[in-house]
Amino acid sequence: MPTIAKDTQLQTVITTFEMTPGTCQDLMEALTDAYDNFISKQPGFIAAGLHVNDAQTRIANYSQWERREDFQAMLRTQEMRERNRKINTLCRSFEPVMYEVSAAFD
């Protein structure tokens, strides 16, 4: 379960993907497979969520890691590099960005 709190030491990564409605389902399947079979099993992984907009032109991915280095190590693996090459063919662009929580509201 993701933790959204200002005083946490976790690494939050938000990735946005831009695609056409025609490739949205394929991209969602590729991302789901990546999380089910690889990413969620990597050291430091805590939780993630995938969100699709109504027009099916954007997917937002929210993930949390114990440390920044855990996320970076996952990205550098051969398997994730191969998966990202496939993901790149299914979308116009994607960009993972690391964030710190500045404020949280209940």
UniProtKB/TrEMBL annotation:
Gene Ontology molecular function terms on file: monooxygenase activity
Keyword Heme in record: no
UniProt cross-references to InterPro entries, sorted A to Z: ABM_dom, Dimeric_a/b-barrel
Domain named ABM: residues: 11-101
Keywords for the protein's UniProt record, in alphabetical order: Monooxygenase, Oxidoreductase
Domain of life: Bacteria
Record-given protein name: Antibiotic biosynthesis monooxygenase
Origin organism lineage: Bacteria, Pseudomonadati, Pseudomonadota, Alphaproteobacteria, Rhodobacterales
